[in-house]
UniProtKB/TrEMBL annotation:
Family: Belongs to the major facilitator superfamily.
MF annotations from Gene Ontology: transmembrane transporter activity
Source taxon at top rank: Eukaryota
Main localisation: membrane
Membrane topology category: Multi-pass membrane protein
Start and end residues of each Major facilitator superfamily (MFS) profile domain: 1-322
Gene Ontology CC: one annotated term: membrane
Provenance organism: Parnassius mnemosyne (clouded apollo)
Intracellular or extracellular location(s): Membrane
Protein name: Major facilitator superfamily (MFS) profile domain-containing protein
Transmembrane segments: 27-48, 113-135, 180-200, 212-231, 237-261, 268-288, 300-318
Length: 330
């Protein structure tokens, strides 16, 4: 997103659209470009076939077999004719008829799954590191000014943020002006997070998703606390970037959900548990914005402390490595 913004934002055009009462400019064009992948994904979904199990449950066996053959062809790059299926059989759940939709969610709130549902939902709720991304452009922009001028290197991150809040608007500077250096730094942060995510994926099978989430949360949470204990702009920003990497733990939580819940409830659990994080985000963004304006240090300590506490909560979940071994033996 940062790279795309660099060539588009400086474009000087501006067309008035009387029907909407707005000026169509480079910023609106950029948002349209950002929305294009989602629009394309929506169109591609129109060509995605239904689940073969769902189609079979509706009584369309031949259509279900055709879908399975299509999946086999794409996965193995072989003709569908090479994959012979004589017929399909109903599983135990389908033999007793479809489960009423209102009862499908009930097992998630009964033992032994209730514990997993509550803990994982709370883990998503406590992971509000993403709320700080709203302030990322401001922080990066102020930091680049320090780098370019050399003034203010002995300051903490909250001191840098307070400058952006207290400085009056300069009427001679174009609003929302583009700082290419800041955008390139944002690009670097995203690239480092992608690289870190790749490295984690190489070792997570040995360590386990639960253990990796615990270690990762402790490191990132502690970094968020240390951010403002250092009166050095460079070191403070480095610890802030480590803290921001905490968003990667959400993928580990999803993987834990897949490992802990049985197959017939897995999709429902994956859809339900992140709801805690979504609800928390609605509240955390305005709360964080207010805290960073009136008491920045408290904002970092509170949000980092909550995120750090999720490591202790995750310790009550079973080690997913042993769960996988048990399933393989079965």
């Amino acid at each position: 997103m940062a790279v795309i913004a660099i060539p588009i934002i400086p474009l000087p055009f501006s067309f008035y659209l009387p029907g909407l009462g707005i000026y169509w400019n480079s910023w609106r064009t950029l948002l349209l470009v950002y929305s294009t992948p989602s629009l394309l994904a929506a169109l591609l979904l129109l060509f995605i076939q239904e689940s073969p199990k769902y189609v079979f449950a509706k009584g369309h066996e031949e259509e279900s077999i055709d879908i399975i053959k299509t999946i086999h062809r794409w996965n193995n790059w072989k003709p569908a004719e090479d994959f012979q299926i004589n017929g399909l059989t109903l599983d135990a759940q389908q033999l007793h008829g479809p489960t009423p939709s209102k009862n499908q969610i009930v097992p998630l709130f009964k033992a032994p799954l209730l514990k997993y549902t509550v803990i994982i939902t709370t883990l998503f709720l406590f992971q509000q590191v993403a709320a700080f991304t709203v302030w990322m452009p401001t922080i990066v922009n102020q930091f680049m000014q320090i780098v370019e001028t050399g003034v203010g290197t002995d300051r903490s991150l909250c001191s840098i943020i307070s400058d952006s809040v207290e400085v009056p608007v300069d009427p001679d500077v174009a609003p929302c002006a583009l700082n290419v250096s800041s955008l390139l730094l944002v690009l670097s942060v995203g690239a480092l997070q992608a690289l870190l995510n790749t490295l984690l994926s190489l070792v997570v099978n040995r360590v386990g998703y639960r253990n990796m989430a615990i270690y990762f949360t402790v490191v990132c949470g502690m970094s968020g606390i240390v951010v403002n204990l250092i009166s050095n702009a460079y070191a403070s920003v480095v610890f802030f970037m480590i803290f921001m990497a905490g968003v990667l733990v959400m993928g580990m939580y999803v993987a834990l959900t897949v490992a802990l819940f049985p197959t017939h409830l897995r999709a429902l659990a994956v859809a339900l548990t992140p709801t805690g994080g979504s609800i928390g985000m609605l509240a955390s963004v305005p709360i964080l914005n207010r805290l960073l304006e009136i008491n920045c240090n408290a904002g970092f300590y509170i949000f980092s402390g909550i995120f750090l506490s999720s490591a202790f909560l995750a310790a009550f979940l079973p080690d997913d490595r042993y769960l996988l071994k048990t399933k393989r033996k079965m």
